[in-house]
User: Which sequence fits this backbone?
């Protein structure tokens, strides 16, 4: 019986592909992403499934670019008239790529707005820009609190109780810092918490601390910088105090805050779900836990959400058959099932709410905290992610290295950021 | 054609073979250089279909940036000036002193020369990373030594006041070998008889150096001043490798013009502005070189 079914299926498949070939209708499209081992494997698995279901389309998977060169490669390919039909971009790059006319809006009949908004994690709405959706993801990420259980235990703290509020976070950071001599940054032998603005701390400030202190980073339509408010000053000063006042750590020590946590010399760390894979691979002995980010002074929860997302390029749109194939491929790689495959293979959380609701995922001791965060995550609207990050790095350095007041430093960053936003929106006018 | 002599035919082939690198040079170096001039007049984003012509807008932006106190473009030009003004004379002075000493010794001369030349042929990125470790605030060798002598530890690369000097020290040291070799070659060319005559006349060591060595070394000095200045104006790799995230920080204290060109062009895809920066840098290098050639070649007798 089974054999007969298999035979029938094979015959059917052959007939289908034969017909497609006979018509000369095998459409070849290119899919590009940067090289990150597990993501490449996961996408290869999805492409294989897609080929089985769609014998009239062939997807060439090109992922031979290191992260640092990915944008250069896209930039070099575009004038040469080659490149991807479907491309995976960091969500924060979307406005710049839309601005350049590189992406086309997702076809509304295949990706209805209501469907996206009712099926995907709310942060995906960030890819809506000037009335259209330009990209849709397979998976999303959020930030959570990592803590080192061994250090907690050595400091006489309960290794199973991470800080739940910002005040507790400060207390524990102070309690777990050790010095060789006076309580000075240079004498630190073990860090309680070290803010790394070039890492995730700028996101923690912009979308979490700021909101918990009652501020917002930008206005509704993202044309105006609002993080230099009194609430912003307070939140930024709180973050800087770890280095200037409590002296619990610095990104200058131990080759950076992330490395410090990974090598077991830092008690507390804020990071994304993507870090789990790296820890499992390179630091399997690290005894750590993951919890939701501490709540703010008024008990408000927030986290920063981000995602790599897939868009369709103008190259695909120039040819009807390619556009149709690209759309079908994009639909295939953004289903709830694709998201479930992704979380298993990559460790990133599924983008569709249906898969996020999976009780097994929510109960996972490590992924659970990130999953819970998806309900209240905010994604920043970036016009130039690297530059906007740099503004906060510099503002933070003005405080810790230049001795500047948090409010003045933040005002300088805000002025530069406003100029950047003005420039971007002027170009769209 | 058929009557060509063997000598002429040889010459023809020589031209044909020599033409290959010339064509390569024209297509890969000269054409893009001129293309950069043109690009600086456009709002050039390689991802876009249209590259709108904007006239001198990119240069106006550059000028406006130069007038803002904490702009990164301004920091890049100021730092680059700092690297050349401090680095070039320092490097040549040290190199000259070493070359004079190396010129005196007879035993193990090759070994000593090798020691000074080795850093020059070592990869800049490798050296930069080694020094990044040496400068590390807790376990870096320099701070361990300071601690051992009970001196206060220093932040080096992590402090905007010390970072430029910390990077400059590495660059000066790495380029020393090249300058030493050029000076040594220059010293070998000074005829011994001049020194013997000076000794007979009862000249002091300083007089000998001042009136014989220095003037006769002038061609080497001119060559090195021009070449090293250009290399300091083009500073890039050590800053990229020795600063956090390669951003030329902290607080833009180490960034250079070329690093900005790279960031603007390949990170922000703002190629028109990056091209404008390269054009300005090109003009500065040209002016500095002409000026130096004029000034340093004046006295030759």
Assistant:
């Amino acid at each position: 019986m089974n054999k007969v079914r298999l035979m029938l299926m094979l015959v059917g498949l052959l007939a289908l592909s034969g017909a497609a070939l006979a018509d000369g209708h095998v459409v070849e499209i290119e899919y590009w992403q940067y090289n990150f081992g597990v993501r490449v494997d996961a996408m290869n698995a999805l492409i294989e499934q897609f080929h089985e279901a769609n014998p009239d389309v062939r997807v060439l998977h090109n992922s031979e670019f290191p992260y640092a060169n990915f944008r250069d490669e896209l930039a070099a390919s575009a004038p040469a008239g080659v490149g991807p039909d479907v491309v995976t971009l960091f969500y924060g790059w979307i406005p710049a790529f839309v601005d350049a006319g590189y992406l086309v809006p997702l076809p509304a009949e295949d990706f209805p707005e209501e469907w996206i908004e009712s099926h995907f994690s709310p942060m995906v709405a960030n890819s809506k820009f000037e009335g259209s959706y330009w990209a849709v993801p397979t998976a999303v990420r959020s930030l959570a609190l990592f803590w080192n259980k061994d250090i907690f235990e050595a400091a006489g703290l309960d290794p199973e109780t991470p800080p739940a509020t910002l005040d507790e976070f400060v207390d524990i950071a102070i309690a777990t810092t050790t010095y060789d001599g006076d309580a000075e940054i240079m004498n630190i032998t073990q860090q309680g918490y070290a803010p790394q603005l070039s890492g995730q701390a700028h996101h923690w400030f912009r979308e979490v601390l700021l909101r918990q202190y009652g501020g917002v980073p930008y206005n509704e339509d993202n044309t105006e910088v609002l993080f230099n408010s009194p609430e912003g000053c307070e939140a930024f000063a709180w973050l800087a105090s770890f280095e200037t006042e409590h002296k619990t750590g610095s990104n200058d020590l131990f080759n950076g805050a992330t490395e410090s946590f990974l090598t077991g010399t830092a008690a507390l760390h804020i990071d994304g779900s993507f870090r789990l894979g790296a820890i499992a691979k390179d630091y399997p002995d690290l005894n750590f836990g993951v919890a939701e980010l501490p709540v703010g002074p008024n008990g408000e929860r927030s986290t920063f959400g981000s995602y790599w997302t897939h868009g369709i390029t103008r190259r695909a749109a120039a040819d009807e058959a390619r556009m149709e194939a690209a759309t079908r491929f994009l639909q295939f790689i953004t289903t709830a099932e694709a998201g479930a495959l992704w979380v298993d293979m990559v460790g990133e959380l599924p983008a569709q709410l249906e898969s996020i609701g999976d009780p097994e995922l929510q109960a996972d001791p490590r992924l659970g905290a990130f999953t819970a965060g998806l309900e209240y995550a905010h994604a920043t609207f970036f016009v130039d992610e690297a530059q906007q990050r740099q503004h906060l790095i510099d503002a933070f350095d003005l405080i810790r290295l230049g001795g500047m007041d948090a409010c003045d430093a933040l005002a300088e960053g805000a002025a530069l950021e406003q100029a950047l936003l003005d420039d971007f929106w002027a170009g769209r006018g | 054609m058929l009557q060509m002599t063997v000598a002429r035919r040889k010459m023809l082939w020589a031209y044909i073979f020599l033409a290959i690198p010339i064509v390569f040079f024209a297509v890969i170096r000269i054409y893009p250089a001129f293309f950069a001039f043109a690009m600086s007049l456009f709002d050039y984003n390689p991802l876009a279909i249209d590259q709108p012509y904007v006239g001198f807008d990119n240069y106006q932006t550059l000028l406006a940036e130069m007038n803002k106190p904490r702009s990164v473009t301004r920091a890049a030009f100021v730092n680059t000036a700092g690297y050349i003004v401090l680095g070039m004379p320092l490097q040549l002075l040290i190199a000259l002193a070493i070359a004079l000493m190396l010129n005196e010794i007879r035993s193990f001369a090759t070994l000593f020369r090798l020691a000074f030349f080795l850093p020059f042929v070592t990869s800049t990125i490798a050296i930069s990373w080694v020094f990044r470790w040496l400068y590390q605030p807790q376990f870096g060798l320099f701070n361990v030594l300071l601690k051992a002598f009970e001196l206060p530890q220093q932040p080096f690369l992590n402090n905007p006041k010390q970072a430029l000097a910390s990077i400059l020290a590495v660059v000066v040291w790495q380029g020393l070998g090249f300058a030493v070799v050029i000076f040594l070659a220059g010293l070998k060319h000074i005829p011994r008889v001049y020194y013997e005559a000076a000794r007979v006349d009862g000249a002091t060591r300083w007089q000998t150096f001042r009136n014989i060595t220095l003037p006769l070394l002038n061609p080497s000095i001119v060559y090195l001043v021009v070449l090293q200045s250009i290399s300091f104006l083009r500073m890039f790799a050590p800053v990229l490798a020795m600063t956090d995230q390669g951003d030329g920080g902290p607080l833009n204290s180490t960034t250079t013009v070329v690093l900005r060109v790279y960031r603007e062009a390949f990170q922000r895809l703002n190629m028109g502005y990056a091209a404008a920066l390269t054009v300005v840098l090109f003009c500065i290098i040209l002016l500095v070189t002409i000026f130096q050639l004029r000034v340093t070649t004046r006295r030759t007798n």
